[in-house]
Amino acid sequence: MVFYTFAVFCQILNGNSRAHRYARRQKRRKERIMRVYYDRDCDINLIKDKKVAILGYGSQGHAHALNLRDSGAKNVVIALREGSPSAAKCEKEGLKVMGIAEAAAWCDVIMFTMPDELQAATYKKYVHDNLREGAAIAFAHGLNVHFGLIE
């Protein structure tokens, strides 16, 4: 599905060929970029028995953790800073909470879902020296990796 601005849409309806060409280019560009994955595209067994640490419990961390748990992942913990107000929410949802350094040493997969501006410092302070050999790191958004703030 392609979304046009209202102005471009009106010009297309009025027969403006330039606006129509622009809209077609945008549609082709989006078709090349976006790929939607469904349940049939993945094998939950690959992560079901892995130890997964989700860093942060905001909107993205909450969604990732509950999705994994509800999909059958058995070992999901939330890694939070000491004294985080999110700890009570996690425990209410039935999720285990660990400190960030402890979770980094424990997990097979660590998922950064915290805000971009906190990721580099958190990685350097808690994760880098504690991450086990062979553990995977994932990012909900890759700004810090793209700009080399986390290597």
How would you explain this protein's 3D organization?
The protein has about 150 residues and is α/β, with parallel strands linked by helices. The chain folds into 2 domains: about 1-35; about 45-145, NAD(P)-binding Rossmann-like Domain (Rossmann fold). The protein contains 8 helices and 5 strands; from the N terminus they run H-H-H-E-H-E-H-E-H-E-H-E-H. The chain has helices at about 5-15, 15-35, 45-50, 60-70, 85-90, 100-105, 115-125, 145; strands at about 50-55, 75-80, 95-100, 110, 135-140. Helix 4 links the parallel strand 1 and strand 2 (about 75-80). Helix 1 (about 5-15) crosses helix 2. The two termini are about 35 Å apart. The relative contact order is 0.12.
* Strand residues, percent: 15-25%
Can you tell me the CATH architecture of the largest domain? 3-Layer(aba) Sandwich
The strands making up the biggest β-sheet line up spatially as 3-2-1-4-5
Order of helices and strands: HHHEHEHEHEHEH
Q: What's the helix count? A: 8
The radius of gyration is: 20 Å
Helix content: 40-55%
The CATH class assignment of the largest domain is: Alpha Beta
- Mean pLDDT, to the nearest integer, reads 83
Counted up, domains total 2
The CATH H-level homologous superfamily of the largest domain: NAD(P)-binding Rossmann-like Domain
